[in-house]
Description:
Chain A is of the alpha/beta class and 416 residues long. Chain A has helices spanning 20-35, 77-84, 117-127, 132-146, 161-172, 191-206, 218-224, 242-257; strands at 7-17, 50-61, 66-70, 92-98, 101-105, 179-183, 210-214, 227-232, 235-240, 269-277, 282-284, 291-293, 298-306, 314-322, 327-332, 345-353, 361-371, 377-390. In chain A, helix 3 packs across helix 5 and helix 4 crosses helix 5 (161-172). The longest helix of chain A is centred in the first third of the chain and has 16 residues, at 20-35. Chain A is globular and about 80 Å long. Chain B has helices at residues 23-36, 38-54, 61-79, 92-119, 121-124, 132-160, 171-195, 198-212, 224-232, 235-247, 254-286; one strand spanning 11-14. Chain B is built from 11 helices and 1 strand. Chains A and B meet through helix 1, strand 4, strand 5 and helix 3 of A and strand 1, helix 2, helix 5, helix 7 and helix 11 of B. Strand 4 (92-98) of chain A pairs antiparallel with strand 1 (11-14) of chain B.
Amino acid sequence: MDEEPLVKLEHVSKKFCRSLKRSLWYGVKDVARELAARNGMTQLQLRPSEFLAVDDVSFELKRGECLGLIGPNGAGKSTLLKMLNGLIRPDIGRITMRGRVGALIELGTGFSPILTGRENIYVNGAVLGFSKKEIDARFDEIVDFAGLGEFIDAPVQTYSSGMHVRLGFAIAAQLNPDILLVDEILAVGDMAFRMKCMNRIWSLMKSGLGVILVSHNMYHLQAFSTRAILMEKGSIQAEGKPVLVVGKYESRVAASAIRLSEPEMAGPVIFKEIRLSLADQDVQAGKELPVLETYEPFGITVRYELRAQVSQGIQLGLIIKNSEGNRVSGFTTGRDGERLPGEPGSYTICFDFDSNLLLNGDYYCGLSSFNMDYTQTLGFWEPAVKFSVRTPGYNGLGHVGNVFLPHRVSLSSTSA
Amino acid sequence: MNQQHSPAHLTVVYTPGSQLRDPGRLFRHMFRDLAASRELAWRLFVRNVSARYRQTMFGYAWAILPPIFATLVFVFLRDTGFFNVKETKVPYPIFALAGMVLWQTFADALNSPMRMVAGSISMLTKINFPREALILAGIGEVLFSFLIRLVLLVVVILWFGTPVPWTIVMVPVGVLLLVALGIAAGVLLTPLAVLYHDIEQALPVLTSLLMFLAPVVYPPPEVSRGSLMMTLNPVSPVLDTTRAWLLTGSPEHLTGFIAVSVMTLALLFVGWTLYRLALPLLIERMSA
């Protein structure tokens, strides 16, 4: 029995309709077909404006496993969860759920804003299938877990969004399901509460709970999941170790997600051009994505025009950010007091890097210019150029993060 | 949604295909879910009732103010002669108020399923709970409002000092049938109303039209052309009989009442089945 999967999807597809008017009319037709017992009798055919939101998806979930679902918005993850939760049914295929299903999807659904937290605990508990007795027995634990204190007798509309979610989770956490569906709930709430939620789910997983987790937070996803699935346009694109699937997703998204912008034209410094120079090639901004290799030398050449006299001289800033927009490294030419000329004219400046210490992933560069005491921004261009970094031997396990710190390893045997 | 529950393993299988192909299982599940939804229905009822009046100054008075004012309007129209109504067996204000209260109860019941579903869309698209709870909670609210109005009615009857017939014990039966009729019609309309908001727009117009086609503020006409209305509008015999039980003790349309009872029970079951079958298909369309 234990070897049987908790969740089993066999070639599941679900169609959706893009046009509202048509969708409503199809709804009427579908109800009519259902009444005539005709639904599911014929082969699935897409009617005009329809598309497959979930397209031939099959997977299994075993006890103690956590399956992470990732993918861009509209990939079909939430639709999939709705089918697993029994809210809507597949158009093709078969879903088998073995055990009690709990869903942590938009917590606190059913809360009435003008009722107190106390009253809402009973309402939400009943929605989730608890009797009054069961809630009475767990009431203190719920209030304690939510950490609401005296707010428990205040109307829920006075709660912060974090408190709202905390109360929702505290109630839902009392469920004792075999299968838990989690949709992007850990994005809210503060750090301490998130840890509490994670610990709670972890301890449930140890006792045999199976989890299906949808999250856009790659850190949570990797921390939780034992396996991950990448979905795109309704179908499974990759499946396997979370770190590998996440890496694949990030590299797919990153390159397309970064939109290069035009340089700022208002200030005295106008950036004209940025070039990346690799060992053997010279790539102009905006053209195909340059690929830098880790440990190899590279250079960045910037052409700019100074249109007005800046008496104290100017400085340029260069920043490198990763695909999520986090700063990886940045510096200005004037950080040690060095001045670039303040006389109007056209200039070209080169930054030469001996060794590229960035790790596998996608990055972009931003340019800025300031006066010497940073009180004025003279020019700005970000993202000015994007590039990919390829690390030899990268598998997402041997290296993690954005930067490699060169080091030596020495080992000596220590006898106790 | 074909669901195969085996109690030992709690296994559910979802496949495409109409649930009507195994009606036995469908009906078993309907009654199982009805039983399972009582606790939730009670909670939703308490939530809705306490939430509805909490942010008001007049509170529960809002349940009785509309029928009072409507009755006053008709009493005024009749007294001034603009509105010609033949003599009623009990003082006209009691007659009209009882009619208004009963009609309002029917109208509430008719609106209730649509209102409950529309107000629970976020729950319906996110949580799997027995859907029967929404309808039950709605019935609870309708009966609750009726009870408040009943207090008003009793006060007015005592004020006028009209004798109370023994048939008053039958009134609950009449009210329940009135509510059941409204709920049945409402549930039948719900699937379409979820998809097309035309229903929501049209219903108030239709309800007020129907009110004048039912003997609410005037006694049922005796001429044959007028009595056609009694047979065509199923609310009429129920309303008139219930009011007679309450006020005079001599109902005149018992046959109609019994016919409507049978029809209502059948409609209620058909509506419930439709609601069950249609909801998953509707949730697909309403999920935001």
